[in-house]
Amino acid sequence: MKKQIFALVPVKGASERIKNKNIRAFAGSSLYEIKLSQLQKVKGFAGVIVSSENEQILDTAKKYGFLIHRRDQKYSTSTVPMSSVYSFIASEIPGEHIAWVNVTNPLADSDIYEKAVQEYERMEPKFDCLLSVSEVQEYLFYKDRPLNFRSNPWPKSQDLKGVLAMSFVINILKRQDMVKLGSCVGNNPFFYCLDRVISTDVDFQENFDFCEMVYRQRHGIK
Questions:
Q1: Backbone angles phi, psi at 132, to 5 degrees
Q2: How far apart are CA 194 and CA 120, in angstroms?
């Protein structure tokens, strides 16, 4: 039986590290509108819900034919823990399953989301969520000790494996699990591996500049 999956797109009007990063100019559009355009082409979602405290953002979502969740301003501030944000939003929207989709991964196109839905539909029952990740092939230390390599014999960087980083391109889980856990991560995740370029998240200005350059190149935008 096909699962009822709603894509949830959380979008704050303001941001701290990069001012108004979700709605500022990006490759002739914005991160927000690019993501809405990508999601419009995805088959498999029961619906797309945009959650925001910003009326302009919600109005744009309606123009795309998407559902909206008018978020309490309190849950768009940095003083409220993300666990509370996850639980609050999930408790206020419909659907059996939620695909948490950020707008800050502009290099992840429609096919990435469609494949994720397909993977979630057919994943084994032992898994309770799908997490988009990328493999980290760097020499990592934790508590002063090598985490993913041995100092002797010294490994080549291409042989460094086993460490995964969440990309937040898409995370899918049961809505009630998100409410209960206050998280977009379950207890036994299925890892949906993407390459590091697609996984790039716009968190700092250098990420913004890099993604805009690649996006322009890939879409022939001068």
A1: -80, 130
A2: 15
